[in-house]
Amino acid sequence: AGVASRLSVQVADMRTLPFEPQTFDAAMSVAALDHLDWPGIRQTLHEVARVLRPGGQLLIGGLNPDLWVRLAVPSSMHGGYWGTAQNLQRWREELEGAGFQVDESGTQPATVYLLAHLGQ
Predict the structure, then answer these.
(1) Strand, helix or coil for residue 5
(2) What is the pLDDT of residues 56-94, one digit of tens each?
Protein backbone atom coordinates (compact mmCIF):
# COMPACT_ATOMS: atom_id res chain seq x y z
CA ALA A 1 0.00 0.00 0.00
CA GLY A 2 3.02 2.29 -0.13
CA VAL A 3 3.14 3.07 3.59
CA ALA A 4 6.21 1.07 4.61
CA SER A 5 8.41 4.17 4.74
CA ARG A 6 5.91 5.89 7.10
CA LEU A 7 5.25 2.95 9.40
CA SER A 8 7.03 1.71 12.48
CA VAL A 9 5.94 -1.06 14.82
CA GLN A 10 6.62 -0.90 18.53
CA VAL A 11 5.72 -3.59 21.04
CA ALA A 12 4.53 -2.26 24.39
CA ASP A 13 2.17 -2.85 27.28
CA MET A 14 -1.05 -1.00 26.46
CA ARG A 15 -1.44 -0.07 30.13
CA THR A 16 1.78 2.00 30.04
CA LEU A 17 2.29 3.33 26.53
CA PRO A 18 5.83 4.56 25.71
CA PHE A 19 4.70 7.63 23.78
CA GLU A 20 4.65 11.34 24.50
CA PRO A 21 1.33 12.97 25.37
CA GLN A 22 -0.84 14.06 22.44
CA THR A 23 1.12 12.07 19.86
CA PHE A 24 -1.68 10.41 17.86
CA ASP A 25 -4.90 11.33 16.09
CA ALA A 26 -6.48 7.91 16.51
CA ALA A 27 -6.08 4.53 18.19
CA MET A 28 -7.83 1.20 17.91
CA SER A 29 -8.10 -2.06 19.79
CA VAL A 30 -9.48 -5.11 18.08
CA ALA A 31 -9.98 -8.14 20.32
CA ALA A 32 -7.24 -7.00 22.70
CA LEU A 33 -8.41 -4.48 25.31
CA ASP A 34 -11.33 -6.69 26.33
CA HIS A 35 -8.87 -9.36 27.52
CA LEU A 36 -7.85 -7.19 30.48
CA ASP A 37 -9.72 -6.99 33.77
CA TRP A 38 -11.68 -3.79 34.51
CA PRO A 39 -8.79 -2.09 36.37
CA GLY A 40 -6.52 -2.83 33.38
CA ILE A 41 -9.13 -1.56 30.94
CA ARG A 42 -9.50 1.65 32.96
CA GLN A 43 -5.72 2.16 33.08
CA THR A 44 -5.42 1.55 29.34
CA LEU A 45 -8.22 3.97 28.47
CA HIS A 46 -6.48 6.68 30.50
CA GLU A 47 -3.19 5.92 28.73
CA VAL A 48 -4.86 6.12 25.33
CA ALA A 49 -6.45 9.43 26.34
CA ARG A 50 -3.00 10.69 27.33
CA VAL A 51 -1.39 9.89 23.97
CA LEU A 52 -4.29 11.09 21.78
CA ARG A 53 -4.58 14.68 20.65
CA PRO A 54 -7.76 16.55 21.67
CA GLY A 55 -10.60 15.26 19.50
CA GLY A 56 -8.66 12.06 18.74
CA GLN A 57 -10.71 8.95 18.05
CA LEU A 58 -10.65 5.52 19.63
CA LEU A 59 -12.25 2.46 18.04
CA ILE A 60 -12.70 -0.63 20.22
CA GLY A 61 -13.94 -3.88 18.70
CA GLY A 62 -14.39 -7.35 20.05
CA LEU A 63 -16.35 -10.55 19.76
CA ASN A 64 -20.08 -10.29 20.29
CA PRO A 65 -21.23 -13.55 21.85
CA ASP A 66 -24.14 -13.84 19.45
CA LEU A 67 -25.28 -17.01 17.68
CA TRP A 68 -22.41 -16.79 15.15
CA VAL A 69 -19.78 -16.75 17.88
CA ARG A 70 -21.48 -19.43 19.94
CA LEU A 71 -21.41 -21.73 16.91
CA ALA A 72 -17.80 -20.97 15.96
CA VAL A 73 -16.00 -20.45 19.29
CA PRO A 74 -15.78 -22.77 22.30
CA SER A 75 -18.16 -21.83 25.12
CA SER A 76 -15.24 -21.09 27.47
CA MET A 77 -14.57 -17.90 25.48
CA HIS A 78 -18.08 -16.43 25.75
CA GLY A 79 -17.61 -14.82 29.18
CA GLY A 80 -15.73 -11.69 28.20
CA TYR A 81 -16.75 -8.14 28.84
CA TRP A 82 -19.13 -7.61 25.91
CA GLY A 83 -22.02 -10.01 26.28
CA THR A 84 -24.72 -7.93 27.94
CA ALA A 85 -26.25 -4.47 27.73
CA GLN A 86 -24.97 -3.94 31.28
CA ASN A 87 -21.41 -4.60 30.14
CA LEU A 88 -21.77 -2.27 27.16
CA GLN A 89 -22.98 0.41 29.58
CA ARG A 90 -19.89 -0.25 31.73
CA TRP A 91 -17.68 0.32 28.66
CA ARG A 92 -19.43 3.64 28.06
CA GLU A 93 -18.90 4.66 31.69
CA GLU A 94 -15.22 3.68 31.61
CA LEU A 95 -14.68 5.61 28.36
CA GLU A 96 -16.42 8.69 29.76
CA GLY A 97 -14.35 8.40 32.95
CA ALA A 98 -11.19 8.59 30.83
CA GLY A 99 -12.39 11.72 29.03
CA PHE A 100 -13.98 10.17 25.94
CA GLN A 101 -17.40 10.78 24.46
CA VAL A 102 -19.01 7.77 22.79
CA ASP A 103 -20.09 8.63 19.25
CA GLU A 104 -21.40 5.27 18.15
CA SER A 105 -21.74 1.69 19.32
CA GLY A 106 -23.26 -1.33 17.74
CA THR A 107 -23.01 -4.89 16.61
CA GLN A 108 -22.46 -6.76 13.41
CA PRO A 109 -22.49 -10.53 13.13
CA ALA A 110 -19.90 -11.75 15.65
CA THR A 111 -18.69 -8.20 16.37
CA VAL A 112 -19.40 -5.44 18.86
CA TYR A 113 -17.78 -2.01 18.63
CA LEU A 114 -17.56 1.41 20.26
CA LEU A 115 -16.30 4.54 18.53
CA ALA A 116 -15.43 7.46 20.79
CA HIS A 117 -13.54 10.72 20.64
CA LEU A 118 -11.47 12.49 23.24
CA GLY A 119 -13.13 15.61 24.58
CA GLN A 120 -11.49 18.94 23.80
Answers:
(1) helix
(2) 999 999 877 777 777 777 665 544 556 556 688 899 999
Residue partners of 94: CB distance under 8 A and separation at least 6: 38, 41, 42, 45
pLDDT tens digit sequence for 29-65: 998 998 889 999 999 999 999 999 999 999 999 877 7
Burial class of residue 33 in the structure, from the number of CB atoms within 10 Å of its CB (0-12 exposed, 13-18 middle, 19+ buried):
buried
DSSP for 6-47, please give it.
G-------TTS--S-TT-EEEEEEESSGGGS-HHHHHHHHHH
pLDDT of amino acid 12: 94
CA-closest candidate to residue 65, choices 107, 106, 33, 110: 110
Q: Give pTM, 2 decimals.
A: 0.85
